[in-house]
Amino acid sequence: MTGADTSRAWREIDAAALARNVSALRGALPPGCELMAVVKADAYGHGMSAVVPRLLSLGVRSFAAATLGEGTQLRALGAEGTVLILGYTPPERVGELARLGLTQTVADLAHAEGLNAQGVPLRVHLKIDTGMHRLGIAWDEPEAASAVFRMENLTVDGIFSHLCCADSPAPDDVSFTCEQIRRFYALTAALAARGISLPKLHLQSSYGLLNYPELRCDYARVGLALYGAVEGAAARSLGLRPVLSLKARIASVREVTKGESVGYDRAFTARRKSRIAVLPIGYADGYPRALSNTGLICIRGCLAPVAGRVCMDQLAVDVTDAPDVAVGDVAELIG
Questions:
Q1: How far apart are CA 137 and CA 318, in angstroms?
Q2: pLDDT at position 124, please?
Q3: Is 40 among the catalytic positions?
Q4: 220-260 pLDDT, tens per residue?
Q5: Which residues contact 123 (CB under 8 A, 6 or more apart)?
Q6: From the candidates 227, 264, 273, 283, which is the catalytic residue?
Q7: pTM, 2 dp
Q8: pLDDT over 50 (residue 2)
């Protein structure tokens, strides 16, 4: 799948890589666990309108998004199953959530009370704070969690938490993750001891699934791994592949002599007679400004370094060692 306008810069989505990743991740799921595709932030920049129909064709039925607006877009794209809104939605918008059949995350007890007070039946997932201290009811407050189950207008379909450093192999981080896992199941055990029938549980995001595959959950909320944007032995063993390529056409090629500078703040100074290619893409298009003077861009099979500051809509590349580079050639910035 390719963007319509390839005259300047564009992204390409590799449908085969996405299908391969979905298959590999499903094979890694614990028994009885369902893949919940996370498509927030326009499918991590891949384009929700390109990714979601493909996921639906692959049989994905459960999705997670950040906002009510994203949930609305998912419904418009044909997602008919569970759509979990991970972020906060103001209680006064419950009617929109209910009309679209969206499932709302309960951010804390006060949020639950506000949602319930609207008098509109709503499906929710209860977020548990196990140590990230972002959203959620504290893991050691089972009575507060129990109270949500007693609210007449809320149907609790799920309970979840988020492992904040599951990607790290550092001993302290592994210890912290294991403590988060313990806290989560301590909370669910406390609810069960109160006679509450537990709904679907989910604790693993991408690195939770890759590095802690032994956990038994009903969903795995997979975002980064879905798009092949993960690292580590577990990711390599599954053969996950990047789904997105970011490309641009060279707009200009010029020569600079030794000692001349290029771009803002004269951040690049030629150490030899050099050829500089200019690409019509910059940080406004999503290419990080932090890659100024450090990024590498593939042109004609060569890795050419970014020369100087990444500008808002342009950047320069030192193509001295890339033979025969010319205006109109395609440069791959992400691939």
A1: 52
A2: 98
A3: yes
A4: 999 999 999 999 999 999 999 999 999 999 999 999 999 99
A5: 101, 102, 103, 104, 154, 155, 157
A6: 264
A7: 0.91
A8: no
Per-residue pLDDT, 1 = 36
Secondary structure of the chain as H, E, C letters: CECCCCCCEEEEECHHHHHHHHHHHHHHCCCCCEEEEECHHHHHCCCHHHHHHHHHHCCCCEEEECCHHHHHHHHHCCCCCCEEECCCCCHHHHHHHHHCCCEEEECCHHHHHHHHCCCCCEEEEEEEECCCCCCCEECCCHHHHHHHHCCCCEEEEEEECCCCCCCCCCHHHHHHHHHHHHHHHHHHHHHHHCCCCCCEEEEECHHHHHHCCCCCCCEEEECHHHHCCCCCHHHHHHCCCCCEEEEEECCEEEEECCCCEECHHHCEECCCCEEEEEECCCHHHCCCHHHCCCCEEEECCEEEEECCCCCCCCEEEECCCCCCCCCCCEEEEEC
The pLDDT tens digits of the residues spanning 33-77 come to: 999 999 999 999 999 999 999 999 999 999 999 999 999 999 999
Amino acid residing at 165: C
pLDDT in tens, 148-178: 999 999 999 999 999 999 999 999 999 999 9
Least confident of 66-70, 262-266, 284-288, 294-298: 284-288
Which one of 40, 127, 200, 247 is the catalytic residue?
40
- Residue 200 a catalytic site member: no
Q: How many C-beta neighbours within 10 Å does residue 296 have? A: 12
Give the separation between CA 141 and CA 116, rounded to whole angstroms. Answer: 20
Structure-token pair, residue 254: 């010029």
Segment 3-14 shows an average pLDDT of 83
Paired tokens of 155: 């149907």
**How crowded is the C-beta side of 128, counted as CA atoms within 13 Å?**
29
